[in-house]
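Entry 14. Ran structure prediction on the chain below.
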Amino acid sequence: MKSVLIGSGLFAVILLAFAAMPASAHNLDRVHPASRWASSVERRIDVNLDYPAAVRLREPRSAEVAFSVGADGRLGEPVVTRSTGVAVLDEAAVEAVRRTASVGAPPASLTGRPITYRATFQAPTVRPGR
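Output, structure tokens:
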């Protein structure tokens, strides 16, 4: 059984499920149920993202967190697949996924196979001179 990989960069969506669709269908990503669902996942996780206020980096860094999504929309245990290099920032990204817990059932076009979601969280930065 092939897994569907859905990714985001805080949050730019890449739906690899579209890879099997004809190129003309890719233009429908704004209205496609899988795209709407992925945007909903991002919003739900983003609400739970709470980076420590004391940690601000001078250069951009991001953490990538992978987790499974069940047919009922429950999220599996998140795992950091790319670190910011700052443990508290990585943990904040993981905790955002844990606090989300469920995102609603995926659309029918994504059900019937395991779903792995990869979310990229951009760590906060400060402007030079601050």
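Residues 1-5, 8-29 have pLDDT under 50 and may be disordered. Will compare against last week's run tomorrow.
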